[in-house]
From TrEMBL:
SMART domains: SEL1. This is Cytochrome c oxidase assembly factor 7 homolog. Belongs to the hcp beta-lactamase family. The keyword Repeat applies. Keywords: Repeat. InterPro entries: HcpB-like (IPR040239), Sel1-like (IPR006597), TPR-like_helical_dom_sf (IPR011990).
Length: 247
C-alpha cells in the first residue's frame, strides 16, 4: 500500500485491480477459504457484481464450510440477491452450516427464522430450538441475539404460538417458555455491553423497577446515560454520513 498515491485516481484504480488479482490468486491457486471470502466481499462491495459474489460465497461454504461465506450466501437466498431466487429453506440450510462453524451472526439469523412465523416461506416454527440458537449467537457476541432473547424472557412465549411445531416439547403450563426477568436482565446486560441501544434502555428500566435484579437508582441512571450517549452518537453518525455524501 505504501507504494500507491491514493490522491491519484489512476493509482487508486491500479490498487483496486491488483487487489482483485491477489484475492483471486489466494482463493483459486492457494485455496485459502479466508481469501475466497475476501474475494466475495471484493466482488460485492467494490465491483458490485452480486452474481459472481454469490457464487464465490456459495462455493466457499460448500467446499470449505467457511462460516462467514455461509452466512453471506444464506442472506443472498433470503433476499433473492445476486440473481438467486428467494428461497428460505435453502437460506436456512446455509445459515445452519454457518452457525455450526461458529459464525454467531448465522446463529442469530437461523434462530430468528425459527422464532418468527415463516411457514408460508417453508420454515416451520420451533421456538425452543430458535431460542437455543439465539443463545449461541449471543454467546458468540451478536448483540441482536442477546436483545431478542432478552425480550423473549421478558414476555415469555405462550404455547399457542408454537403449538403446530412443538408437539414433542414439554409444555410448561400455558407457556412454552415462562417469563424470566433474571435471564432477561442477564441477556439485556450482555446485549448492552455489545452495543445494542435497546438492550441498554431495557437494563436501565430493569434497575429502575427492580425487575430481575435488585432495584438500583444509580445503575438505572448510569445505563440511561449510556443509552442517551449511544443515541446521540447514532444521530451524529447519520448527520456525518449525509454531509459526506456517502448515502
Amino acid at each position: 500500500m505504501a507504494g500507491y498515491d491514493f490522491k491519484s485516481e489512476s493509482e487508486v484504480k491500479d490498487f483496486i485491480n491488483n487487489l482483485g488479482i491477489e484475492y483471486r490468486f489466494g482463493c483459486y491457486s492457494e485455496k485459502k477459504p479466508e481469501v475466497c471470502h475476501l474475494l466475495g466481499d471484493y466482488l460485492e462491495s467494490i465491483k458490485k457484481d452480486y452474481d459472481k459474489a454469490g457464487k464465490v460465497y456459495k462455493t466457499n461454504c460448500d467446499d470449505y464450510k467457511y462460516g462467514k461465506s455461509c452466512l453471506k450466501y444464506g442472506t443472498y437466498c433470503l433476499l433473492g440477491k445476486g440473481g438467486i431466487k428467494e428461497d428460505f429453506p435453502v437460506a436456512y440450510n446455509y445459515l445452519e452450516t454457518g452457525c455450526k462453524n461458529n459464525e454467531a451472526d448465522a446463529c442469530f439469523n437461523q434462530g430468528l427464522l425459527l422464532v418468527t412465523d415463516n411457514e408460508k416461506r417453508g420454515i416451520n416454527m420451533d421456538i425452543l430450538k430458535g431460542m437455543e440458537l439465539l443463545k449461541k449467537g449471543c454467546e458468540g457476541k451478536n448483540a441482536n441475539a442477546c436483545y431478542y432473547l432478552s425480550g423473549m424472557y421478558i414476555s415469555g412465549v405462550k404455547t399457542a404460538k408454537g403449538k403446530r411445531t412443538q408437539a414433542t416439547a414439554k409444555e410448561n403450563g400455558e407457556f412454552l417458555s415462562k417469563p424470566n426477568m433474571k435471564l432477561a436482565h442477564q441477556y439485556a446486560l450482555e446485549g448492552c455491553k455489545l452495543g445494542n441501544i435497546f438492550s441498554c434502555a431495557n437494563v436501565s428500566q430493569m434497575y429502575a423497577k427492580g425487575d430481575g435484579v435488585e432495584k438500583n437508582e444509580e445503575l438505572a441512571a448510569k445505563f440511561k446515560k449510556i443509552t442517551l450517549e449511544m443515541q446521540e452518537e447514532m444521530e451524529s453518525n447519520k448527520t456525518l454520513k449525509f454531509q459526506e455524501g456517502l448515502q
